[in-house]
């Protein structure tokens, strides 16, 4: 049986965006779904603190991970550093570079970045990326570069912002086609 892990991004919550909706959909199918609250805020959100949360979970070759925003690159770094293989990765609005939004976001995102991210393909051979052509936080070029580097499949969702509640995404039907 598969187990699912859904991760929010910087300053996020498991109760925001389309995460509760997806958790409910998967649980109705009898799936085991975990949506943890990751440590957030300057001084709390970093690779070490986020890793501690995942260290307590059962992540293995039957795990499907869905991650949003900064969480995709964190997951890549985590799996590589822990030498863990997983069944599938589904990334939404992922990136692996400074955004230049403000110092606070750059400070919490910096420890998540990966030097040679292509190595993630050694830990998962089924990687899908979703991103938008008008994300107000992450440039199209940054999201496309991330997807081009690691994804087997990628989908650009036109005019969908950061694919979050702010851009109208409390439901994300499109993601079900790859799960």
Task: Give an overview of the whole structure.
With 179 residues, the chain is an alpha/beta fold. It has one domain: Rossmann fold (3-Layer(aba) Sandwich), CATH 3.40.50.1820. The protein has five helices and six strands. It has helices at 19-28, 47-55, 71-82, 103-109, 140-150; strands spanning 3-7, 32-34, 63-68, 88-92, 127-132, 153-157. It has a six-stranded parallel β-sheet with strand order 2-1-3-4-5-6, sandwiched between helices. β4 (88-92), α4 (103-109) and β5 form a beta-alpha-beta unit. The two termini are 14 Å apart.
Give a quick set of tags describing it.
179 residues, alpha/beta, Rossmann fold, six-stranded parallel sheet, 5 helices
Radius of gyration: 15 Å
Instruction: Please name the CATH architecture.
Output: 3-Layer(aba) Sandwich
Strand content: 15-25%
Distance, first to last CA: 14 Å
Helix content: 25-40%
Query: Main sheet, how many strands, which sense, barrel?
Result: 6 strands, parallel
Mean pLDDT: 95
Count every beta strand, where a strand is a DSSP E run of 2 or more residues. 6
What is the chain-wise order of helices and strands?
EHEHEHEHEHE
Low-pLDDT stretches: none
Strand order of the largest sheet: 2-1-3-4-5-6
Can you count the helices? 5
Overall geometry: globular
